[in-house]
């Protein structure tokens, strides 16, 4: 055995201990009942600091197993106050043999606590038990948490004589936070359940591994296992990080170590991430970068994340890995708070520097040779000449002398100014065409007034400044065009707009040749006159409407020469003219039946009723026109959103669907959404391509775009909220380079009129080891890709088939990982009963929970409670949302972020390590999170916020103190009176609106703090995200219960039961193989 192996393998010979000694010791040293903090009542709620697996930092292999010992009863109640002492991390520890008669001892939830010891190999001898050591710990480096039977009072006096392999003496214990290289182990941990057992197989030194309780074994009480099951980090810091970035494995969490360092110093931190991510920084360890390592700034995970931190080197290895290998790309994401904006580079006369063969853009991995006259492409290896205007000599290390001053050589994300050869035509000005439904259905539900009001309030936020152009089209059963006038064109001072009506909805044409699209700056007065008159012109309309298709065709005719954004604002179904629904769709039947949701018939009705809108969308995409859809549907009216969806899907547009529309509660969502749509960073006239290392190609693009060729995506419009997915496929040849690189390039026109290329370049190591694919995976992007794949699959397969496929991928992953581990028994320490445990590496410890969240989500669930609350349009809207899901949204959707709003323990929250969540009205530290189980969340005295990514739910218990509601109403009554008036009952809609009222700085009340928390989380969500209030006992409470992912439902198992089922399948496969 090598020296390195000997450091990793623990002692396999541990003598038996005398149980009666423990009993005598316990009788002579009763627990200190005065410590109320250690009582069972106070420990009933699980410690969120342990739920994310912080007991198992890097380098550890831990097997947690359920209770199988008859000795459990002998130790009930024998607990003591937890103590923490320093111990090295990277530890590989084990217990073997029969330390106690009757098998291994599994302490009950109050019988284990954290011990920390410093030393290379500490041998700990409990007092009054045996002179021989019970457990041997090999601790190569850093610090780690180790669970112990708490009754062993491990004070300095009791273990000061413990022998150390290094000859050192164990230092005096101290209590405090663990400080390790892993940011997720920054907690004062306290083990509540679990048993120290022989370690599982370590697939790779330095990579932690988690074993789930083997719940299928006889004598295991599942109820006691739930507290130790892997969950997201529910601390204040963890919740804030999850809201903003989603689930992040350790390799990506390292990118936030600047924030972590700040937290250690100040106790609070912002979501800054100027430090390098491990996935990118690892490049420095195996491949030189073009600049100095200290100035290198890799791609932030907000822009681009790969589902694996090491890439398979061969097709055979990839084929054996059952999980997705791909990337989530959000090219125009807003820079993280505290980060500088993406640098802009203008190469001037030299032009953009690119590889002459594969056309990849120069980046931080490009190496310069021949004295700086050539550079080698890191994608294809080709040597290209350096233009004379870009030439710079090299230093002694082979780097350009100016490398550290050039953003393209120091940053993973950069904008290049595109010269004229990157333009087919001059950049067009930002153009907005609003197509408004003025039919009776739009008027009756109040949507028309909301449409007009939202446009009026968004005029000041339109992009493009003095270049912005705008136009208005309205429709009912006919199509209406409006010519707007500028003050300079009308000498008599009359700015009344001109109206022209086209009644032939089967052959729409432009009746006004000029004046329908005008400069906003010149014609604003005429536009506002038109908006004022529209409310009165159609106030008493009885026109049934339905000319949606003709209105869209009219908008296409108006924009086809210049491109731009067509914003369709409607409440009607397409029933007239081109694009009208088929007779069967108009008659309703099953297509409009609420009972169709959740059945296998659902998928046929999620397809468009006709092909008109897809064909129109393709033509729009070619003309650089995007189409946004704002659909406000009346109560229980089927609006055929599935038929309209292609307009946005193939043009990169936005979709907002407000079912059961009520002006009083939904107008604020409509205004907020439209303002965000027109003001966020936007790329016009765009195309996107992702290049990869030779032998790898992109496959299965996911998102809203039109595929112009096999790898070129047309994006007439994309923005900071749009996210895309892609899978990587290895071709026949193996990868022969040390690193896999992917480069996302978006050629677009900025709102200011400048043509640019947005570049994101990311690189990860290449591996030939299956274990590396598991141990360096990113759970957030992995879950996002799985969810996107399921959303596409369910449109072509029945529910059960898709559910079985996603479950099978999880089972295969566990089987492959454990089979790979068994091959390492000769090299690393092994577990004799490995097949009886559910083992996953630490980065994927949340994978079973995420898979269960997908299975229980409305996307795949067949629960009656979910189906009853959804219309077919709701389901279609959900599928469209998955197309743009960021990692943060998908993480919250599979496992909601739950925080209490009232009451809050002010003292505990004051001491809680947290992260200030930016983006809201104020910087607020979030409370500790709650696990998604009704028993832990829905207490009658609480007000709880449940963030599922696409909705914020606020649940009020029946016994909430009236003072909280009184504070909430008193503080917001003036601001909210304009909507609900000064009198009336306090309805859920009233309370929801109150939570959105302005929070004044220096707030002290509980209601103000609750509103600050809600608005801070809402600021990290999509602009239209609704806030819904549910009182205990309301019918909508069934929807709240469906969000409790860990609980059992009518058709779905609980989290523990799901793990047990998966474990049985894995054990069966391992046994048969």
Automatic annotation (TrEMBL):
<dbReference type="InterPro" id="IPR036465">
    <property type="entry name" value="vWFA_dom_sf"/>
</dbReference>
<feature type="compositionally biased region" description="Polar residues">
    <location>
        <begin position="86"/>
        <end position="97"/>
    </location>
</feature>
<dbReference type="GO" id="GO:0005789">
    <property type="term" value="C:endoplasmic reticulum membrane"/>
</dbReference>
<dbReference type="Pfam" id="PF08033">
    <property type="entry name" value="Sec23_BS"/>
</dbReference>
<dbReference type="InterPro" id="IPR006900">
    <property type="entry name" value="Sec23/24_helical_dom"/>
</dbReference>
<dbReference type="GO" id="GO:0090110">
    <property type="term" value="P:COPII-coated vesicle cargo loading"/>
</dbReference>
<dbReference type="InterPro" id="IPR029006">
    <property type="entry name" value="ADF-H/Gelsolin-like_dom_sf"/>
</dbReference>
<feature type="compositionally biased region" description="Polar residues">
    <location>
        <begin position="1"/>
        <end position="21"/>
    </location>
</feature>
<keyword id="KW-0333">Golgi apparatus</keyword>
<feature type="region of interest" description="Disordered">
    <location>
        <begin position="1"/>
        <end position="61"/>
    </location>
</feature>
<dbReference type="InterPro" id="IPR036175">
    <property type="entry name" value="Sec23/24_helical_dom_sf"/>
</dbReference>
<feature type="compositionally biased region" description="Polar residues">
    <location>
        <begin position="30"/>
        <end position="39"/>
    </location>
</feature>
<dbReference type="GO" id="GO:0030127">
    <property type="term" value="C:COPII vesicle coat"/>
</dbReference>
<keyword id="KW-0472">Membrane</keyword>
<dbReference type="InterPro" id="IPR036180">
    <property type="entry name" value="Gelsolin-like_dom_sf"/>
</dbReference>
<keyword id="KW-0931">ER-Golgi transport</keyword>
<feature type="domain" description="Zinc finger Sec23/Sec24-type">
    <location>
        <begin position="352"/>
        <end position="390"/>
    </location>
</feature>
<dbReference type="Pfam" id="PF04815">
    <property type="entry name" value="Sec23_helical"/>
</dbReference>
<dbReference type="GO" id="GO:0000139">
    <property type="term" value="C:Golgi membrane"/>
</dbReference>
<dbReference type="GO" id="GO:0006886">
    <property type="term" value="P:intracellular protein transport"/>
</dbReference>
<feature type="domain" description="Sec23/Sec24 trunk">
    <location>
        <begin position="427"/>
        <end position="678"/>
    </location>
</feature>
<dbReference type="InterPro" id="IPR036174">
    <property type="entry name" value="Znf_Sec23_Sec24_sf"/>
</dbReference>
<protein>
    <recommendedName>
        <fullName>Protein transport protein Sec24-like protein</fullName>
    </recommendedName>
</protein>
<feature type="region of interest" description="Disordered">
    <location>
        <begin position="198"/>
        <end position="220"/>
    </location>
</feature>
<dbReference type="InterPro" id="IPR050550">
    <property type="entry name" value="SEC23_SEC24_subfamily"/>
</dbReference>
<dbReference type="Pfam" id="PF04810">
    <property type="entry name" value="zf-Sec23_Sec24"/>
</dbReference>
<feature type="region of interest" description="Disordered">
    <location>
        <begin position="81"/>
        <end position="102"/>
    </location>
</feature>
<keyword id="KW-0256">Endoplasmic reticulum</keyword>
<dbReference type="Pfam" id="PF04811">
    <property type="entry name" value="Sec23_trunk"/>
</dbReference>
<keyword id="KW-0653">Protein transport</keyword>
<dbReference type="GO" id="GO:0070971">
    <property type="term" value="C:endoplasmic reticulum exit site"/>
</dbReference>
<comment type="similarity">
    <text>Belongs to the SEC23/SEC24 family. SEC24 subfamily.</text>
</comment>
<dbReference type="GO" id="GO:0000149">
    <property type="term" value="F:SNARE binding"/>
</dbReference>
<dbReference type="InterPro" id="IPR012990">
    <property type="entry name" value="Beta-sandwich_Sec23_24"/>
</dbReference>
<feature type="domain" description="Sec23/Sec24 helical">
    <location>
        <begin position="778"/>
        <end position="888"/>
    </location>
</feature>
<dbReference type="InterPro" id="IPR006896">
    <property type="entry name" value="Sec23/24_trunk_dom"/>
</dbReference>
<feature type="domain" description="Sec23/Sec24 beta-sandwich">
    <location>
        <begin position="683"/>
        <end position="767"/>
    </location>
</feature>
<keyword id="KW-0813">Transport</keyword>
<feature type="compositionally biased region" description="Polar residues">
    <location>
        <begin position="51"/>
        <end position="61"/>
    </location>
</feature>
<dbReference type="InterPro" id="IPR006895">
    <property type="entry name" value="Znf_Sec23_Sec24"/>
</dbReference>
<dbReference type="GO" id="GO:0008270">
    <property type="term" value="F:zinc ion binding"/>
</dbReference>
